Structure formats: C-alpha cells, structure tokens
Amino acid sequence: MKIGNATSLVTLLLGATVFSAPVFAQNTTSLKHTLVLEDLENPWDMAFLDDGTMFYTEKCKGLSVLLPSGETKALLGMGGSEGFASTADDLFCEGQAGMMGVAIDPNFANNRRIYVYSTSNMSTPHTNRLMRLEVSDDFSNVSGRTDIVDDVPYKMKASDHPFGGPGAHNGGRVRFNPGDGYLYLTTGDTHNGQVPQSPTMMGSKVLRIDTDGTAAPENTPPVGFDKRTYTYGHRNVQGIAFHPGTGTPIAAEHGPWHSDEITVLRNGGNAGWDPRPNMAGRGDCPDNYCGYSPNQMVGENRFARASWMPMTDFETYPSAMPPIWNNNGWSQGTSSAAFLEGDTWGDWDGAMVVGLMGIGFGGTPLGQRIDVLQLTDDGTEVIDVTEMTLPMEAGRFRSLVVGPDGSLYAAIDEGMIHKLTP
Amino acid sequence: MKTGSIIVIWLTILLGTSQAAAQDVEVGKSLYKKNCRACHGPTAKGLASYPKLVGHPAEYLVDRLERYRAGEKFGPNTPLMAPRAKKLSDEDISNIVTFIVTTFE
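Above: the input entities. Below: the structure tokens describing the complete assembly.
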C-alpha cells in the first residue's frame, strides 16, 4: 500500500481512533463563551452596529455581514472569490496581506458607509488601500467604492528575512476615535528599511484622516511629512484602541524577535523604529533591512537583540514615544487591542485587552492569549497585566472588538469568532 | 537508501495494520498539537503566513521535515521550522505525517 493512497485509510483509521472535539481548559473564569461563527478563512476584523449586526473580513475571501437574525450575507469578494454579491478583481491576498480592517461610519444610520482596508493590484507596485463603501438598506450588497487612501506600501518581492515572503507587514487596523471623530489607519514597514522614518511613504504610520481620506488638520507631523501622519516610526501596528476617559489613541504592535509594544501615541510622535542598515552602529543587513538582525534566523537572547536593534531607539531618537509595556521583552505576535466597558466586567471595566497570536521562536514561549492591562486613570501607565483565563481553547487572536452588548468578540486565525460575556 | 525513503517505507508498513496505524496516528496527533498546530492550524490548512499542510503527499512532508532537520535553509519560515524539526526523530516525523495525511482533507 502506498502512503500516497493514504486517503483510502481514513475511514479505517477513523473507525479505530477517536478524534474528539477540542478539549477546553478546565480552569475557566466565569466568562461565558459563545461561538459566533466558525469555518471562516483567516477572519481578520469585525465591526458592529448597535443592533448587533456584525461586519467581518476574511483575509483571502472578502467582506461579509452577520445579521441579528443569524443570517450571513457575503458582500464584497476578493478577486476570484465566489458567492459574494460583488467582487473586486483588484483585491488579492498574499502572505500577511489581503483584506484586513473594517470600521463603521459613526453616521452610518444616515450615510450607510463602512471602511475596509485591503491589498490591491490596481496599481504597480501594488498597494494597500482604504476603501469607503456604502451598504444597501437590506444589507445584501455594497456599492460606491471610493479609495480614500490608495498609497500604503505593499511588499512586492520576497526578501532574505524571516517571514520574508511578499505581502509582509501591512498593519491593517481601521478604527474611529470616539474622542475626536477621526478615522485612524495603522500601517507596517513592509520589510523595507526606508519606510518607518520616511516622511512620505505611508507605511509604518498611524494615519489620522477624515472620511474622505484628507489629513486631520490637527495633525502635527514633522516638517516635510505627509500631513496624514499622526505618528510614524512604527514596525507593524495591528492594534489601536482609544482610552475611554481621554480618547488618547494607544497602539499595539509586533516586535521583531523581541519587544512587542503598547504605546500611548502622541500627535506627531516617532515610535523610534529604524531598521535601516548602517545606522546606530549597525553595518549592512540582508536586503537592506536590519529588522531581525543580528543572526536573524537563529534564536538569541531577546535583550541582546533589543540592544542591537531596538524597537524604540532612544539613542537615535531621544524624544521617541516610550512604550508603556513591552511584553517582558518577548515577541509573541501582539495583534489587536480594545477597552472593556461596562459594569458587568467588574474590576476589568475600563481595562485594556490585547490579543496575542503566538510565535514560538528560539525559546520564546508561544504565548497565544488575551492579556488584560490595568492602566492608570489617565491611561499613561500600566498598573497590572493579567492573562485572561479563557473558557475556550486559545488561538491566534487576530482581532478583539467590544460589541454593543458589552461582550468581547475575538477572531482567531483558525477560523472562529468567539464571544466572551462576563 | 535515503532516510526519507526509509521513513516512507516504514510508514507503509505501519499503516498496513489498522491497530498500529491508529496508535501512531494518536502519537502523531499529540506531536502535531505540540509542534505544528499553533502555526499550521487545527486542520493543517495553514494560518496567516504559515502554509497549509493538507493536500501534500507524505513524501513531500517527510522531505521538508528532514531538510529542516538537517539544517537546510529554504523558505522564509526556516528559522521557525528548523529548531522544531531538529527535535524530531524519524519516528516522530513518521507519526506526524501519518496523522496529517490520514486525518485532514
């Protein structure tokens, strides 16, 4: 019997082997767990209306909506997708790139607008775009696509780096700040050493714009910078949340082989990531990007790495925004952030939650989890960090969103959207 | 004879009896959960930038694991794969691959 014909064995083996459902952790908190959706393909983000309607993206498929009735409708597909009300042939996925963040206009009841961030091949080099769409009254389709941001860099070619395939580091979160009403878009460095400190390339930035894509006039980037820039010098920001008391944006981003960071953003601030070669005592680096150096393919002490290629380089940029948390120096895939709100959360009311996807490299603990960060009242310091004891199996926590019912919704790459209710 | 060929032959022999195969699938399942699942997913369909394992013949999967184990550098995920593969014995590779090719579609 050839192993290539192993499919024929499946029935036989299944008869002798019990493939049980996932074994849930025994030590759960009082959180109640509901599986909202499953069998999705890399769900990336969600956005809610007050009645519980949930828009969600799948990285390689497109945009869909789950209605309060339980019915789902596939709205806008990527190129080649089937079963969607419409498809946009320029949208594609590759590596980490694809359809990512989604946000709902605060004035949705009147303008029916939503905002979706996706990779597009409409231009060459390809880019990441923030699209504005209008949802039909019956939630059956979207129309009126307007690309309000069309120039966020995309990595076209593979490079000699870990995770070095095309499509790396796009950022991807899209959120409205209830405090100032502006739309925030987070981007990434695309494994390009020049991008983070570039005044004009819109990777490694947090953009603050209006719903037409125009820079917020209050933005104060350094002279010569694109006015859409709220902050710059980031590595790959996939999480942004706004302090419920102050409205201050707080970013969560991946570290390289060390130092995931939570950073309170300052208008015009520099996050201090500068992976250019021949900078800060470094020499040449593979493909002109020092982001994983030195010894980028081998495990090494994280603090030594942080000293050589810091996430926030205070020596070069003394006024860089300091992180308020660095995951004890580990890099475990910090991806998304939100603030819990409501009395039902008890002591966690007002706490920040951060999702980690897990990266087990070079002795780093895998770390798939949701952390609960207690901040000071002004949101500028971390008081305590607690790992949420989950009432379900952990996964690659890609997106955390607090729904209108006060529950915490968590999308994991494994294809599920969970609801956690206190 | 290459080690990969030996493993494939061994796999063939093991899979010849359902009881032994089931036992090795269980071992493979445990090894998969410990070493592979976090990146390649619970159904081996791949996650994010981690590739899918389903749809490949056993020979391919064995070859890849052996090359990573031997220290060969290929592909952008080598730094993640190599340390894990180095810990795997021929039997471990056999069990993991058996689990993958007999469990997932």
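Note for the figure: Confidence is low (pLDDT under 50) at residues 1-28 of chain A.
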